[in-house]
Specification:
Blueprint lengths: L2 H12 L9 E4 L4 H7 L1 H13 L4 E5 L8 E2 L5 H8 L5 E5 L8 H11 L5 E6 L18 H8 L4 E2 L3 E5 L3 H6 L2 H10 L13 E3 L28 E5 L2 E2 L3
Parallel strand pairs: 1-2, 1-4, 2-3, 4-5
Antiparallel strand pairs: 5-8, 6-10, 7-9
Helix pairs in contact: 1-3, 2-3
Length: 241
């Protein structure tokens, strides 16, 4: 998660009443060390403010690790059942869709987890280098395309593209990435751009259930693959009651 992405999430969540945010299910959470040490802005910007408001937060990942409350695969029936039992009012799914082979199936499960009036927050890269974990399908959607293709039953509420850092600091920290990127620029389909970016979208679900999702874009701008700055798109949405 980019730091600018975490700050955007904090600002959007602060706009919502406490009752709409708890329990909150954080899918693809990774472990406590990752959220507090490797990328400390995740906990500082997103989860610490929620805890201060008294929100119940449930972290879920495929791995059983410290800081993971539920180890479950949302694509399995058993995993979906365990996640549904949380009774989440809000769901975060940040930077997962580019790391699965069947994103349509995952999107369907995400929508199924959201109750009437609930919130779904989804972020994905918009312009970002190749980053396998363990794979990267190089899914870099336009917000409106993602909304239409993956969440047709949900209504997009809010979306925007946000400026972020350039890719240069990563190259300074890990210069071997340049060799990899040059090779990919020679013609491989997952060729990275020169910037980092995130996409987020929000939707509202049909009557009888509800979902909101952060990402997508209303008046969203295209991220240039060779621009000097990182861009991300974000938004929010609700499922019609």
């Amino acid at each position: 998660m980019l730091e600018v992405e975490a700050r955007w999430l904090r600002a959007r969540l602060q706009e919502l009443p406490d009752a709409e945010l708890s329990p909150l299910l954080n899918l693809g959470s990774s472990d406590l060390q990752f959220r507090t040490e490797v990328q400390p802005w995740i906990d500082r910007e997103v989860f610490a403010p929620l805890r201060a408001r008294g929100a119940a937060i449930v972290h879920s990942d495929l791995k059983t690790l410290p800081g993971v409350d539920i180890a479950a695969d949302a694509l399995s029936e058993a995993g979906l059942s365990r996640l549904r039992a949380v009774g989440a009012r809000a769901i975060l799914c940040c930077n997962m869709l580019e790391h699965v082979t069947d994103r349509a199936a995952l999107a369907e499960r995400l929508a199924a987890l959201v109750p009437a009036g609930g919130l779904l927050v989804v972020t994905v890269p918009f312009s970002y280098p190749y980053h396998p974990d363990p794979i990267d399908t190089y899914y870099r959607p336009d917000p409106e395309d993602m909304s239409r293709e993956l969440f047709p039953g949900l209504r997009l509420v809010r979306a925007e593209i946000v400026d972020g850092p350039t890719y240069a600091p990563e190259l300074l920290r890990r210069p071997w990435l340049l060799v990899r990127d040059v090779r990919k620029l020679a013609g491989l389909r997952d060729s990275p751009s020169g910037t980092a970016a995130r996409a987020c979208a929000g939707w509202v679900a049909p009557t009888g259930s509800a979902a909101r999702c952060c990402g997508g874009s209303r008046g969203c701008r295209s991220a240039r693959s060779r621009s000097a700055s990182t861009r991300a798109w974000r938004g929010s949405a609700r499922r019609p009651r």
